[in-house]
Amino acid sequence: MTNLTRTNRQKKTEQKFDYQEALRDVARSMVRLKRPDRLLKLITRFIDRQFGLHHTSLLVHEPSKNRYVFVNSKGARRVPAGLLKFDSDHPLIRWFALPRRKTPFQEDYLLLTDIKKTLNKAHFRLAADSRASELVKVQKTMEVLRVELVIPGYFKNDLVGILMLGGKFSGRFFTSSEILFFQTLAHDCSMAIKTAEYNQSLLEQNRELENRLQEIEKLRHKEQRTYYEIIRSLAEEVEAKEPTVFGHVSQVEKLGMMTARELGIDLSGQHKDILSAALMLHDVGKIGVPDHILMKPGGLTPEEWEVMKSHVEKGAKILEPLSDFRKVKEIILSHHERFDGTGYPRGLKGEDILIEARIVSVVDSFHAIVSNRCYREGRSIDFALQELEHCAGTQFDPQVVEAFIRVIRREIAKGRIDVAALQH
User: Fold this and answer.
1) Phi-psi bin for 324: left (phi > 0), alpha (psi -120 to 50), beta?
2) I need a labelling partner for 90 at 20 to 30 A (CA). Which of 2, 41, 133, 145 fits?
3) Neighbour count for residue 102 (Cβ, 10 Å)
4) Do the strands 55-62 and 149-155 form a parallel or antiparallel pair, or are they unpaired?
5) CA dihedral in degrees (407, 413, 415, 418; nearest 10)?
């Protein structure tokens, strides 16, 4: 292609080029491209194709090392990406990065032709505050890199990068419209880079926060499990006070889980853990009941009975630190409520009582009837089942009673329940 042909094409391009539309295209690309490296490649490729330059290069700040690196370059005289790195004290960086001082140039860009003209003026070189020595170094840098136009990109007061443009193939000068266009591009790119850095920083902070929260959650869960095991040990201590009811906790847990399955209750995941804990810990509050009341062989006085009844609230209080098992606390607090509303401690009625608490009430009462106690011997299984049927609708939920009787008779018939152990 001859120089004349290239010049004619350049003239037509300059006449037809719509700067506003080009900037709108860039803005749309910024929204679409989340990674700034892709945007920078798009910008350099666009300038290279549209303006017919010897080369187009982008120098961008690398915050982690406080230096400026060539991240992308296009054209016959391009600078290989990553090859050159300018420290913050490089003359070109210092010229744009330092706070604004009096210079011979009014705009935030440098043209090599303007630098040469300025340095040829003797009064400028001799002026005390001219920054002539700095400008000489800038000129040498631009000449080595074969750069004709340098445009900085700022975000607030920070120098984010520098757009470096070689001369035109046509030999023509850059117009004011072109320079303004390049300045807008540099500004927009700087904003995109800083926004991406900010978003990346937020993502990293969020990841770090998530990791810390996970660690905290693991520690909290470990503490909760440790506390649960301590509470379970307390429940076993309560049971150990009465040798005649040894095995009550484990038997109630087994019977309660069987009944829940018979009722079709969801026992997946934590649902199973919650019900199991409630069945195991339902009487943990008895640790706060004096032994002379807990193991009294005869009937309790009204005053002693009030102390005995307080074990449900004491149990709920003990379980307060178990935030993972808040529902366990509510079940334990409700397992002596009656279906007809005459129970304690709150007088709840019917469906207002948690289904898990209604299950605990049935299986706990059943096992209490068939077990030997310090004040009486255990009764037969048939007797206990008749008592449940008799109290269904008053003390107990009829549906829970039906499910319990159905499953226990089936399991006994199949030999899956040791009757002797059940009545120990």
Assistant:
1) alpha
2) 41
3) 8
4) unpaired
5) 70
Pairing status of strand 55-62 against strand 158-165: antiparallel
The 3-state DSSP class for residue 65 equals: coil
What's the Cα-to-Cα distance from 393 to each of 314, 352, 397, 398, rounded to whole Å?
A: 28, 14, 6, 5
pTM greater than 0.90: no
Query: Which DSSP string corresponds to 376-404?
Result: BPPPPHHHHHHHHHHHBTTTB-HHHHHHH
Q: Which amino acid is at 393?
A: G
Local structure of 103: helix, strand or coil: coil
Distance CA 286, CA 236 (A): 11
**Joined tokens for residue 123:** 């009064």
Residue by residue, DSSP assigns 242-307 as -GGGTTHHHHHHHHHHHHHHHTT---STHHHHHHHHHHHHTTGGGGGS-HHHHT-SSPPPHHHHHH
Contact 14, 47 (CB under 8 A): no
For strand 85-87 and strand 149-155, is the pairing parallel, antiparallel, or unpaired? unpaired
Residue 398 to residues 34, 128, 333, 373, 388, Cα–Cα distance (Å): 62, 102, 21, 26, 9
Backbone angles phi, psi at 421, to 5 degrees: -65, -35
Domains and CATH numbers, the chain: 3-199 (3.30.450.40), 241-422 (1.10.3210.10)
The contacts of residue 263 (CB under 8 Å, 6+ apart) are: 355, 359, 399, 400, 403
Going residue by residue through the chain (424 aa), what tens digit of pLDDT does each one get? Answer: 444 444 444 444 444 667 777 767 766 666 565 667 777 888 888 888 888 898 888 888 888 888 998 888 888 777 777 677 899 889 999 888 866 555 666 668 899 999 998 888 877 767 666 678 888 999 999 999 899 999 999 888 889 989 999 999 888 899 888 898 888 888 888 887 887 777 777 778 888 888 888 888 888 778 777 777 777 777 666 666 655 444 567 788 899 999 999 999 999 888 888 898 899 888 888 888 888 888 888 889 999 999 999 999 998 998 888 777 789 999 999 999 999 999 999 999 999 999 999 999 999 999 889 887 666 677 899 999 999 999 999 999 999 999 999 999 999 988 888 777 676 6
* Cis? peptide before 398, omega within 30° of 0: no
